Amino acid sequence: DFGRSSELAFVVEPSDDIAVQEQPLILYCQVEGIQPITITWRKNGVMIVDSDNAFMLANGSLYVSRFQRVRGDGSSDEGEYDCMAQNHYGLVVSRKAKIQAATMSDFHIHPQNAVVEEGGVARFQCQIHGLPEPVILWHKNSMPVNTDNERYTLLPKGVLQITGLRAEDSGIFHCVATNIANVKFSREARLTVSGSHSTVYKDPTILVGPENLTLTVHQTAVLECIATGNPRPIVSWSRLDGRPIGVEGIQVLGTGNLMISDLTVQHSGIYVCAANKPGTRVRRTAQGSLVVQAPAEFVQHPQSISRPVGTTAIFTCVAQGEPPPQITWLRNGQILETSDHIKLKNNNSTLSIYGINQTDEAIYQCLAENSAGSTQASARLTVLWADGLPSPPQGVRAETVSATTIQVSWEKPLQNTKEIIGYVLHIRKAADPVEMEYQEAVSKSTFQQLVTDLEPSTSYSFYIKAYTSRGASKASEVTVVSTLGEVPAMPSLFIKVINSTAVQATWEPSIKLGQHEGFKLYYRKVHLSQYTGPVLLASNVTAYNITHLDASVVYEVKLLAYNQHGDGDSTVRFVSLRETVERTVLNPPCDCMKDEQNNKTSTTGIIIGIHIGVTCIIFCILFLMFGYRGRLLMCKNVQEQLSTPQIPRSQRNTAGLVLNGAARRDRDDRDLNEKQLDMNELERLFPASPTQEQQDKGIMSAHGPPAPHDDTQISTLPLDEFSIIEEQPDPLPNPPRGGSPVAPAPAHGPANEG
């Protein structure tokens, strides 16, 4: 890149102009860039050949010696001119300059005679067309009107307003139009001022309101509004959208004309003139629209770039204007044609060139144009190419494997294969734009690639590039192949038993089935090999009843979807009608009237059962209460029985008990211990409050004689001081004949302290 000065670009471009008949015309064009540079001119797209009338100067400008609107051969020097510059890197075209001949027509509106009372308002108007816009001046009695008089207002469009008329304002008026083409005079008109100033009340009236105007930025707009009335109305201005008019560049001419200098796009809108009666709300209004156009100008220029072969080049060109400009792209001065690898997006503001090669190296221009003007900007694309790169891969083939898979194979390039580090497979739907392309990288030793996850019944294009560390080869030839069609997926199948001889097959529609033409239904007895069917069903059918079946066998039902590519996988279900028959035998059809009566009887039985149950519960509670009292009485009888020995001592239980460390007693005392233990157990189960006398006597002595039945004392101990330990009985010695049993020695301490 040689820097900005190396770019071929315009320093001066031709501009719009108005030429005078039979006068010379010069159109300027100056270019910078790397020499040599060739400059040529075109008019209305046709190359201009040097002649005596038009030729190019040494600085590149075009000189027209004698401009003529219409020549003898019918041609004209009017038209659109552009300048073209070309060097080794490309060609650029300047903006189009519109050249018109200076003209002036006759007046199509002349001033008219007027009779106005003193103190009133007089207005004269004349209109004439011309290029450039004629300047109109007014004369009174053949002398220029004194513009220093504040009561006289001259508007640019040929209007003369006189307010507060006086007798000396009477006279003969006419206008004079002047431009570089000619000078013309209008007809004369007489103004007569009659009578004296009237004091009769008159409502406000707008004689002339603002007209619709279309202008260009930086011009001046004059919106006329002249009103009459008695008293004299006050004229005010506003915008219909409510936005403020502002003060910068705003001026009031005469008694109510609005002048806006140095127009901008923001001044566009509808303006309302109001004539108000002083001191009241009485008013009259008139409105007119102002449209301000702006020539196209660039917000973002395209930038020159350098890209390797096979990559993507993107140019961006953003322009603004009012109305919004149209963008056109040129390649070396010619209209750019889009193709598979050249795309325009975002209202032509973005130019993308995919898979560039050396033929894409050129100067690309962006032309922005609207009704207010045009502009251009250019940028150069340099394609980088390294010597010794591989030639394109050879023999690219693509074979369809399935509905979603294609096998692509190729052969290595014929030249410069030593530096290859890999291949890139470029994949795209044939119907998609180039920017939708995607790539898959392949190692240098692999010459085939299985492309998966494709769409059924779809055409795909493939090409290969070989890559080295210095760049990529040119693209191989493009091959296009289509995937196979796909059969539908398995439908979901459900079987419902209707009766002992019929079932219903139902299935759900699903987008997973894909494009299918319908369904095929088969069924058979499981012990047979032959199916009944297929039963062909439309794609919108979702149920089918199978009848006249044998209830004693099991059936197999099979359903599949099909389309033009074949049959899909089937869904199989098994169904048995035997259970239905058995249920019918065991559960005969119901007698509805009988069932209703049974239901009523059952309800009555439930109510009776509830009453019986409640009664039983009450009896049980009473039984438990009386049983508790009976048990107390029974326990008292047991206590009386235990106080007197009932069986011989020799038949007593030999197990010994130690109570709170009490000493062992002899064999005879064990009966008493057992009685006392039983009584303690009963006291624990059926506690009773002991008398104070019982508490004072304490525990009966171990050696004391047994008390009489009526005087038996029972001692109670707190539970935390009471424990029972069962010990193994010692062998009892045989008592001596005729002697008393030997009492055991007293214990020296508690056997076990709880």
Description:
It comes from Pitta sordida. This is Immunoglobulin superfamily DCC subclass member 3. The chain crosses the membrane at residues 606-626. Belongs to the immunoglobulin superfamily. DCC family. By secondary structure, the protein is mainly beta. It has five domains: 9-101, Immunoglobulin-like, CATH 2.60.40; 104-281, Immunoglobulins (Immunoglobulin-like), CATH 2.60.40.10; 301-384, Sandwich (Immunoglobulin-like); 387-482, Immunoglobulin-like (Sandwich), CATH 2.60.40.10; 494-577, Immunoglobulins (Immunoglobulin-like), CATH 2.60.40. The chain has four helices and 58 strands. Strands 2, 5, 6, 9, 10 and 11 form a six-stranded mixed β-sheet that branches. Strands 13, 16, 17, 20, 21 and 22 form a six-stranded mixed β-sheet that branches. Strands 24, 27, 30, 31 and 34 form a five-stranded mixed β-sheet that branches. A hairpin with a 2-residue loop joins β35 and β36. The longest helix is centred in the last third of the chain and has 51 residues, at 592-642.
Give a brief outline of the structure.
By secondary structure, this protein is mainly beta. Residues 392-486, 487-583 form the Fibronectin type-III domain.
Supply the CATH class of the largest domain.
Answer: Mainly Beta
Total beta strand runs: 58
Q: For the report, how would you describe the main beta sheet?
A: 6 strands, mixed
Q: Output the CATH homologous superfamily of the largest domain.
A: Immunoglobulins
Tally of structural domains: 5
How does CATH name the architecture of the largest domain?
Sandwich
Given as residue ranges, the uncertain stretches (5+ residues, pLDDT < 50) are 592-596, 641-675, 688-754
Distance between the ends: 109 Å
Question: What general outline do the C-alpha atoms trace?
Answer: flat
Question: So what's the oligomer here?
Answer: single chain
Question: At the third CATH level, what is the topology name of the largest domain?
Answer: Immunoglobulin-like
> Helix share of residues?
10-25%
Structural class of the secondary structure composition?
mainly beta
